[in-house]
């Protein structure tokens, strides 16, 4: 939690956090307050969360590509009429309820993958995150009977992702913003995406749903806010309304990060305290029985070797309970970093031993939100160096003149 509540240090920190130069006049109290209101906390943690989350969703959708029609499409055992009945009973939302044919399902599935890839690289992240939200929620709600804990966490986190400013660093949006500088260049691509999104909403919900409660109101509100943001940035770059909108966006971002952190703490604490109440976990034999389940043994020889070591099984079982219960109480201390390493190792072990990769990986993506900024600032350039080298080689090869004489 201290990485979320503390300001990001080092290169790329917001201008409001940088000390004033000796020749610059000291800021007034109003200017300092405005700068503090625009401070976006934990930009590197948010960017890493965006990349990891989108990578997990993309991998999940591609893994289920051969079985997509059976799970969520026209070949699902849960028929279209039964799915509509469950939606009406539970009050869920899915765009797949509009038509039951294969063409519409294939289009939604493909667009969800495209939106996930756009969020992964940070291209038009605000718009792409909304499309990803609609796609993921639509697929999950089409057949809620095939989901697991990982699907539930993805469905929750994709809603929070929309309200996070997760493209300020390590994204194509940040690169485009650096290239623009202070030049007031019209963003034609953004306007085109905004117009297409408005037409889709008008076609899907109709003009009479602007104030309808539920998902129509949420999507129309996000669409209107995007339009207002562009208009103010384009027409009133130095107006007080620009400062107000920037402060509101930073506040929503910080609140969304706090909600995500609280959600992760609730997941760990409830899991840990429920384990404490179980007799198998109290005596330390719970992992032994879990490793003997046929449905959760992708590597039977590895699971059998681990289950045969009683001392190791007991130690790992008690360590799991201690990590999950203690993590929320260590957020404001350095012990949290040690527990993070242990929790990430635990999730990777669950992914390998029990064959539950996406539940484990989505929790690792959520754990990335608690990593210290110093570590991310140190790893960022090292991870980007191979990409810069590859891009430089490609540009050099493209610009290299052709060998040999130009003509006779």
Structure description:
The chain is an all-alpha fold. It is built from 19 helices and no strands.
**N/C terminus separation:** 70 Å
Shape: globular
**Which value, in Å, is the CA radius of gyration?**
24 Å
Percent range of helical residues: 55-70%
Unreliable stretches: 5-37, 400-408
Mean pLDDT: 81
Structural class: mainly alpha
Into which percentage range does the β-strand content fall? under 5%
Main beta sheet: strand number and arrangement?
none
In total, how many beta strands? 0
Discrete helix count: 19
Instruction: State the order of secondary-structure elements, H for helix, E for strand.
Output: HHHHHHHHHHHHHHHHHHH
